[in-house]
Amino acid sequence: MFTISNAENHLKNRTGEITNDVKKMWEEFKSFSKESVVGEEDKAILFQCGVYDFTGEKLFYYDFVRQFTDGIGDIQQLHCEFVFEPIKELKKLEASEWYFDTDGEIDDFFNEIEKLDEFKIPLNHTPLRFNLYQEEA
Known about the structure:
The chain contains 5 helices and 7 strands, in the order E-H-H-E-E-E-E-H-E-H-H-E. The chain has helices at 7-15, 22-33, 88-91, 106-115, 117-120, and strands at 2-3, 37-38, 40-52, 59-70, 75-84, 95-100, 129-136.
């Protein structure tokens, strides 16, 4: 078990060398999402993707997020974010799919995500970079 404050380091230790291997990170993220966390009151999982201009340049973001809420209502999000060149095939993709720990089985959520074109199509492309980070929401 790990705490909310060390979730990022815990996942980095699990994955070893951070790579651009989206499939490997997805499998690690799914396993990580099922782990218990000390101090966590509510858990939410998010898959999101789309073209955004966060840095002054439009890029395609493909992001797996685990959101932690503690007993006093503070929220942290851990992002496994892949950034791609916004080629024509990716520009049309956009998704924001949430799972909350009251929504049934998490494996059902993962299976539904894996069926989405928004999930599958980027797997055929090489990301420009991978960012693993945790922030307050």
